[in-house]
Structure to design on (260 residues):
Protein backbone atom coordinates (compact mmCIF):
# COMPACT_ATOMS: atom_id res chain seq x y z
CA UNK A 1 0.00 0.00 0.00
CA UNK A 2 2.84 2.39 0.90
CA UNK A 3 4.56 1.65 -2.44
CA UNK A 4 1.33 2.34 -4.33
CA UNK A 5 0.81 5.62 -2.47
CA UNK A 6 4.37 6.60 -3.31
CA UNK A 7 3.74 6.02 -7.00
CA UNK A 8 0.56 8.07 -6.81
CA UNK A 9 2.41 10.89 -5.07
CA UNK A 10 5.11 10.91 -7.75
CA UNK A 11 2.46 10.92 -10.46
CA UNK A 12 0.63 13.77 -8.76
CA UNK A 13 3.87 15.71 -8.43
CA UNK A 14 4.53 15.21 -12.13
CA UNK A 15 1.07 16.55 -13.03
CA UNK A 16 1.56 19.53 -10.73
CA UNK A 17 4.90 20.28 -12.34
CA UNK A 18 3.34 20.14 -15.79
CA UNK A 19 0.55 22.44 -14.69
CA UNK A 20 3.10 24.77 -13.20
CA UNK A 21 4.99 24.89 -16.45
CA UNK A 22 1.77 25.71 -18.25
CA UNK A 23 0.84 28.44 -15.80
CA UNK A 24 4.28 30.03 -15.56
CA UNK A 25 5.38 29.41 -19.13
CA UNK A 26 7.42 32.33 -20.49
CA UNK A 27 4.96 32.50 -23.37
CA UNK A 28 1.86 32.85 -21.20
CA UNK A 29 0.40 36.19 -20.15
CA UNK A 30 -1.25 35.93 -16.72
CA UNK A 31 -4.63 37.47 -15.97
CA UNK A 32 -4.40 40.31 -13.48
CA UNK A 33 -3.73 44.00 -12.94
CA UNK A 34 -0.91 45.62 -14.87
CA UNK A 35 2.10 46.12 -12.65
CA UNK A 36 5.68 47.38 -12.88
CA UNK A 37 8.97 46.70 -11.13
CA UNK A 38 11.54 49.49 -11.25
CA UNK A 39 15.03 48.05 -11.00
CA UNK A 40 17.17 51.14 -11.58
CA UNK A 41 16.59 54.89 -11.55
CA UNK A 42 16.13 56.26 -15.04
CA UNK A 43 15.81 52.79 -16.59
CA UNK A 44 12.70 51.19 -18.03
CA UNK A 45 10.77 49.01 -15.58
CA UNK A 46 9.89 45.34 -15.95
CA UNK A 47 6.20 44.74 -16.62
CA UNK A 48 3.90 41.80 -15.88
CA UNK A 49 4.45 40.74 -19.47
CA UNK A 50 7.41 41.34 -21.76
CA UNK A 51 7.26 43.64 -24.79
CA UNK A 52 7.60 40.56 -27.01
CA UNK A 53 4.68 38.78 -25.33
CA UNK A 54 2.46 41.84 -25.67
CA UNK A 55 3.49 42.49 -29.27
CA UNK A 56 1.86 39.20 -30.31
CA UNK A 57 -1.47 40.87 -29.55
CA UNK A 58 -0.69 44.39 -30.82
CA UNK A 59 -0.17 45.56 -27.25
CA UNK A 60 2.63 47.55 -25.64
CA UNK A 61 3.69 49.27 -22.45
CA UNK A 62 7.01 50.68 -23.60
CA UNK A 63 8.49 52.33 -26.66
CA UNK A 64 12.00 52.33 -28.08
CA UNK A 65 14.37 52.58 -25.10
CA UNK A 66 17.08 53.87 -27.43
CA UNK A 67 15.19 57.11 -28.01
CA UNK A 68 14.49 60.01 -25.66
CA UNK A 69 10.79 60.01 -26.38
CA UNK A 70 7.73 60.04 -24.11
CA UNK A 71 4.17 59.03 -24.93
CA UNK A 72 1.69 61.02 -22.84
CA UNK A 73 -1.61 59.35 -21.98
CA UNK A 74 -4.47 60.43 -19.72
CA UNK A 75 -7.26 58.28 -18.33
CA UNK A 76 -10.53 60.15 -17.83
CA UNK A 77 -13.40 58.54 -15.96
CA UNK A 78 -15.11 61.84 -15.22
CA UNK A 79 -14.51 65.59 -15.35
CA UNK A 80 -13.71 67.79 -12.36
CA UNK A 81 -12.26 70.93 -13.92
CA UNK A 82 -8.65 69.94 -14.59
CA UNK A 83 -8.80 68.85 -18.23
CA UNK A 84 -8.87 72.36 -19.70
CA UNK A 85 -5.67 73.23 -17.80
CA UNK A 86 -4.07 70.01 -19.06
CA UNK A 87 -5.05 70.83 -22.64
CA UNK A 88 -3.66 74.36 -22.23
CA UNK A 89 -0.29 72.98 -21.10
CA UNK A 90 -0.17 70.44 -23.92
CA UNK A 91 -0.94 73.13 -26.46
CA UNK A 92 1.75 75.43 -25.03
CA UNK A 93 4.37 72.69 -25.47
CA UNK A 94 2.98 71.37 -28.75
CA UNK A 95 2.81 67.98 -27.04
CA UNK A 96 0.50 65.32 -28.48
CA UNK A 97 -1.35 63.11 -26.01
CA UNK A 98 -3.92 60.34 -25.89
CA UNK A 99 -7.04 60.56 -23.73
CA UNK A 100 -8.71 57.27 -22.82
CA UNK A 101 -12.37 58.03 -22.21
CA UNK A 102 -15.35 56.14 -20.78
CA UNK A 103 -18.99 56.47 -21.76
CA UNK A 104 -20.18 58.94 -19.14
CA UNK A 105 -17.28 61.29 -19.95
CA UNK A 106 -18.31 61.43 -23.58
CA UNK A 107 -21.95 61.93 -22.67
CA UNK A 108 -21.26 64.84 -20.32
CA UNK A 109 -18.23 66.62 -21.81
CA UNK A 110 -18.73 66.87 -25.54
CA UNK A 111 -17.04 70.27 -25.81
CA UNK A 112 -13.85 69.03 -24.11
CA UNK A 113 -13.79 65.90 -26.27
CA UNK A 114 -14.16 67.96 -29.42
CA UNK A 115 -11.36 70.22 -28.20
CA UNK A 116 -9.10 67.20 -27.74
CA UNK A 117 -9.75 66.18 -31.32
CA UNK A 118 -9.42 69.71 -32.75
CA UNK A 119 -6.04 70.16 -31.03
CA UNK A 120 -4.67 66.97 -32.53
CA UNK A 121 -4.89 64.56 -29.61
CA UNK A 122 -5.87 60.93 -29.85
CA UNK A 123 -9.03 59.78 -28.09
CA UNK A 124 -8.84 56.12 -27.14
CA UNK A 125 -11.35 53.54 -25.94
CA UNK A 126 -11.53 53.03 -22.16
CA UNK A 127 -14.83 51.10 -22.54
CA UNK A 128 -18.41 52.19 -22.08
CA UNK A 129 -18.83 51.32 -18.39
CA UNK A 130 -15.28 50.95 -16.96
CA UNK A 131 -15.81 47.32 -15.96
CA UNK A 132 -13.33 44.58 -15.09
CA UNK A 133 -12.99 43.36 -18.65
CA UNK A 134 -11.16 40.18 -17.62
CA UNK A 135 -14.37 39.02 -15.89
CA UNK A 136 -16.39 39.15 -19.12
CA UNK A 137 -16.39 35.59 -20.39
CA UNK A 138 -18.74 36.23 -23.31
CA UNK A 139 -16.80 37.78 -26.23
CA UNK A 140 -19.96 39.53 -27.39
CA UNK A 141 -20.22 41.39 -24.08
CA UNK A 142 -16.55 42.40 -24.29
CA UNK A 143 -17.05 43.66 -27.83
CA UNK A 144 -20.17 45.63 -26.87
CA UNK A 145 -18.24 47.57 -24.23
CA UNK A 146 -15.98 48.86 -27.01
CA UNK A 147 -18.50 49.22 -29.84
CA UNK A 148 -20.98 51.15 -27.68
CA UNK A 149 -18.25 53.67 -26.91
CA UNK A 150 -17.32 53.81 -30.60
CA UNK A 151 -20.93 54.73 -31.45
CA UNK A 152 -21.09 57.36 -28.72
CA UNK A 153 -17.81 58.91 -29.84
CA UNK A 154 -19.13 59.02 -33.40
CA UNK A 155 -22.29 60.83 -32.26
CA UNK A 156 -20.27 63.40 -30.26
CA UNK A 157 -17.53 64.14 -32.81
CA UNK A 158 -18.80 62.90 -36.16
CA UNK A 159 -15.60 60.87 -36.49
CA UNK A 160 -14.44 57.31 -35.91
CA UNK A 161 -12.54 56.67 -32.69
CA UNK A 162 -8.84 55.84 -32.89
CA UNK A 163 -8.25 52.13 -32.39
CA UNK A 164 -6.31 52.34 -29.14
CA UNK A 165 -7.68 50.53 -26.08
CA UNK A 166 -6.74 50.72 -22.42
CA UNK A 167 -8.25 48.16 -20.02
CA UNK A 168 -10.06 49.82 -17.11
CA UNK A 169 -7.89 49.80 -13.97
CA UNK A 170 -5.26 47.98 -16.02
CA UNK A 171 -7.05 44.66 -15.42
CA UNK A 172 -6.61 42.33 -18.38
CA UNK A 173 -6.36 38.76 -19.59
CA UNK A 174 -4.70 37.15 -22.57
CA UNK A 175 -8.15 36.49 -24.00
CA UNK A 176 -8.96 40.22 -23.72
CA UNK A 177 -5.82 41.05 -25.68
CA UNK A 178 -6.88 38.60 -28.40
CA UNK A 179 -10.41 40.02 -28.52
CA UNK A 180 -9.21 43.61 -28.74
CA UNK A 181 -6.75 42.67 -31.46
CA UNK A 182 -9.49 40.93 -33.43
CA UNK A 183 -11.46 44.20 -33.32
CA UNK A 184 -8.48 46.07 -34.78
CA UNK A 185 -7.35 47.66 -31.50
CA UNK A 186 -3.89 48.27 -30.09
CA UNK A 187 -3.87 47.72 -26.31
CA UNK A 188 -1.90 50.39 -24.46
CA UNK A 189 -0.49 49.78 -20.97
CA UNK A 190 2.12 52.08 -19.37
CA UNK A 191 5.63 52.19 -17.97
CA UNK A 192 5.43 55.32 -15.82
CA UNK A 193 2.68 56.43 -13.43
CA UNK A 194 2.09 57.57 -9.88
CA UNK A 195 -0.80 57.71 -7.42
CA UNK A 196 -2.57 60.74 -8.85
CA UNK A 197 -6.12 59.38 -9.03
CA UNK A 198 -7.21 59.73 -5.38
CA UNK A 199 -8.89 63.11 -5.13
CA UNK A 200 -9.16 62.77 -1.36
CA UNK A 201 -5.36 62.62 -1.07
CA UNK A 202 -3.83 64.55 -3.94
CA UNK A 203 -0.02 64.66 -3.93
CA UNK A 204 1.79 67.98 -3.69
CA UNK A 205 3.72 69.24 -6.69
CA UNK A 206 6.96 68.27 -4.97
CA UNK A 207 5.71 64.75 -4.31
CA UNK A 208 4.60 64.38 -7.92
CA UNK A 209 7.96 65.49 -9.31
CA UNK A 210 9.78 63.24 -6.83
CA UNK A 211 7.79 60.23 -8.03
CA UNK A 212 7.89 60.89 -11.76
CA UNK A 213 11.19 62.52 -12.65
CA UNK A 214 13.65 59.92 -11.25
CA UNK A 215 11.71 57.13 -12.96
CA UNK A 216 11.45 58.83 -16.33
CA UNK A 217 13.09 56.68 -19.02
CA UNK A 218 13.47 56.43 -22.76
CA UNK A 219 10.37 55.23 -24.53
CA UNK A 220 8.13 55.73 -21.49
CA UNK A 221 4.38 55.44 -21.91
CA UNK A 222 3.23 57.87 -19.22
CA UNK A 223 -0.12 57.34 -17.50
CA UNK A 224 -1.64 60.36 -15.79
CA UNK A 225 -5.24 61.02 -14.78
CA UNK A 226 -6.99 64.13 -16.04
CA UNK A 227 -9.09 64.05 -12.87
CA UNK A 228 -6.02 65.01 -10.84
CA UNK A 229 -5.96 68.59 -9.59
CA UNK A 230 -2.21 68.24 -9.10
CA UNK A 231 -1.69 67.23 -12.72
CA UNK A 232 -3.63 70.27 -13.91
CA UNK A 233 -1.43 72.52 -11.79
CA UNK A 234 1.98 71.00 -12.55
CA UNK A 235 1.76 69.79 -16.14
CA UNK A 236 3.28 72.92 -17.69
CA UNK A 237 6.30 72.69 -15.39
CA UNK A 238 6.49 68.90 -15.73
CA UNK A 239 6.63 69.13 -19.53
CA UNK A 240 9.27 71.85 -19.24
CA UNK A 241 11.42 69.67 -16.98
CA UNK A 242 11.11 66.72 -19.34
CA UNK A 243 12.13 68.93 -22.25
CA UNK A 244 15.13 70.15 -20.26
CA UNK A 245 16.08 66.48 -19.72
CA UNK A 246 16.17 66.09 -23.51
CA UNK A 247 12.85 64.34 -24.09
CA UNK A 248 10.38 64.92 -26.89
CA UNK A 249 6.70 63.95 -26.96
CA UNK A 250 5.25 61.62 -29.57
CA UNK A 251 1.77 60.29 -30.42
CA UNK A 252 0.78 56.66 -29.92
CA UNK A 253 0.87 56.19 -33.68
CA UNK A 254 4.66 56.30 -33.31
CA UNK A 255 4.53 53.69 -30.57
CA UNK A 256 2.77 51.39 -33.02
CA UNK A 257 4.25 52.14 -36.45
CA UNK A 258 2.13 51.24 -39.44
CA UNK A 259 2.49 47.58 -40.26
CA UNK A 260 3.67 46.62 -36.77
Amino acid sequence: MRKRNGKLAIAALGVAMLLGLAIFSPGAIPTGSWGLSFQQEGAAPIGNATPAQLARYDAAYLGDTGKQVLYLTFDAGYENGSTAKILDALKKHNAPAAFFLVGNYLQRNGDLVRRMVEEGHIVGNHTMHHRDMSALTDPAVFQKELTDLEALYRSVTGEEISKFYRPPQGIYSEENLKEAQAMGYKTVFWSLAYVDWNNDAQPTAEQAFAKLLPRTHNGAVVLLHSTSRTNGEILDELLTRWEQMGYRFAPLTELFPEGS
Remarks:
- The radius of gyration is 21 Å.
- Confidence is low (pLDDT under 50) at residues 1-25.
- The CA atoms of residues 189 and 209 lie 21 Å apart.
- The longest helix spans residues 2-23.
